[in-house]
Amino acid sequence: MSQLAVLLGVFALFSVLGANTVDNLGRLGITVGFGYLDHPANFEIGESLVAYTSGDSYARALGVGILNTALVSIIGCLLATLLGVALGIGRLSANLLISRAVQLYVEVIRNTPLLLQLFFWSATIHALPGPRQAFEPLTGVFLTNRGLYMPALAMDGAAVFSLLLLGGGALAGVVRILVHERRHGPMERAAKTALLGAVAVLLLGVLALCLGGAVSVEPPRLGGFNITGGWVLSPEFLALLVGLVINASAVICEIVRSGIEAVPEGQWEAARSLGLTRGRTLRLVVLPQALRVVIPLMTSSYLSLTKNSSLAVAIGFPDLVSVVNTSANQTGHVFEAIALMMAVYLTISLTVSAALNFYNHRLSLGR
Amino acid sequence: MVKQLKKIAFKAQAAGLAAALALCGLGFSSSAEAGETLDAIKARGVIKIGVGGNSPGFSAPDSAGRWQGFFIDIGRALAVTVFNDPEKAEFVNSSPQQRLPALQSGEFDILLSGVTQTITRATKLGFHFGPVVFYDGQGLLVPKKLGITKGSELDGATVCVQTGTTGELNIADFFRQHKISFKPVVIEESNEFLKAFASGRCDVLTQDSSDLAIRRTLLPNAADYVLLPERISKEPLAPAIRYGDDRWLEIVNWTVYALIEAEELGITQATIDSFLGSDNPSIRRFLGVDPSLAEATGLDAKFAYNIIKALGNYGEVFERSVGKASKLGFERGYNQPWTQGGLLYSPPFR
């Protein structure tokens, strides 16, 4: 009952605040509403996953921002997890050199502000040579202060189709193995090899098929002001990604280390007495148990990585915050812009935490 | 460095929060301040003026930490009109992205930081503009070695733009008009913005041309860069205030007009006292020798005299801060009295 009263109170407070704000904005001649989202945005966005030109609507510009934020966050979380887990294991290595090096890394990264690190990466990438003097570590791969250029694969519809088919087949094979192992325990090594082999042969066969002209490689070339063609990762994206991954990996390293250390010593001893090697013990005995400790903490590092990506505005990557700031500045719809931004970040956060909570629940004992 | 970083971190991470707070401030404070900006200034004893941080020539602290520049002098002229004391002006640094919400939320009484007067800002965003104090246009700064002579040759170029300005829209319009493409790199923080250009991340730096002239002096090899002659937009820079205080707006208007009128009448800081004995009625009225204007306007009869005595006329302010003799070396261009072919025109002091 009292909870209901509090809820109503909060609701009333927000209504009063909201009405007051709308009222005051109205008096200043500012109308509140999302109608402006249909209007042409009239500003360009440097990079976009979907087609966008300055004549497109604010809604589309916002979509571009959301996708950019999502892209850097998703890739960032994946890479940070891989790097973080490797570092966490390295931190516990019996080799003192590795363990101390990781410790140093973690201390340096965790004790400096992320923004400073982003500026550092941004400056490092800007210090690369310009397009005309591009650094070419591999043929067709250019590393310049305009970004990382790689040859792009150009393929026709049939090739795309067969590649999708292949990917699907490979995925089905792996899932098949996983499901089998879950139900019946480890699969016979021979059966597993046979299955994977079949998938591989299929893969090579179709690959050869589409390499017969359907797929071509488009290398980047120097032309005009810039290198054109190929596939490019912008310096801002790279700087942001590297900065976020390195920053988050230091945190994840500590999470993984604490997770592993939380597994009782007896588990290690028991595994050793069964004759398991250190690597197998880690993989089959310790890590699965450590996961229970690790998952909730990982949730929060994924969330902070996503939110930290908003620092992109300082180094020029057009993420959600950057696009929202520009639209708010140009239209004066600050209130709506902030509301949209809050809604997007809230949705991302709740989705990530719901997914990981679900996973955590499945892992927990006494299910 | 660390202080600056903290500031940027705050700005970037809490851009949302700041704007939200600004809106909260709006909700509570504007009802109390509507029509009372001038009362608040008088009660406080000082005018709070929003300026754009490090723009030597327009607004920047000198080596002694004292604010100097074109906009600063106009701010001090306002303090003379209101308090007869040029020191009763307090300058508050604000980035292009933050300045309009900050003005709206009452952080300062007037914004003098190169804000372009536009219809959207005037009708929809709730800002009144005083007279244009500087006629500017958006320019394009490019490295000499590119061999570019006009903007339409820039197809495919990468352009560094600072966010929160009208420049972001103008550059998109410009490339659309010419049916050529470009890639923007949009950066909020002004040092990073310049660094990106200096390192060759972009081919073009775009901003109001006055601002580009300042940036150029800050580049390591200023001589390697050239400001293209064309201007891709009109940028009339004017003081901005909030809606709701007509009296304050008129004080801003006539303070600026006093500077302009003095130059038209040929009155300078050095010669002003010799004009006190003039028998030209408009000069007598302007300088308050004839006190009839004081009764009509409710302002100090000698407010214009005090302004010119303390700071000089428009031309003097211009020359001292940004003119030929200064580091920026601007031509007067459009910023000349209408009598000399410029756009500066003061309504009559009558």
From TrEMBL, chain B:
Statement: the UniProt record of this protein carries the keyword Signal: yes
GO biological process, one term: amino acid transport
InterPro entries attached to this UniProt entry: Bact_solute-bind_prot3, Solute-binding_3/MltF_N
Record keywords: Signal, Transport
SMART domains: PBPb
CDD domains reported for this sequence: PBP2_BztA
Signal sequence, renumbered to the chain: 1-34
Family according to the record: Belongs to the bacterial solute-binding protein 3 family.
The protein, known as: Extracellular solute-binding protein, family 3
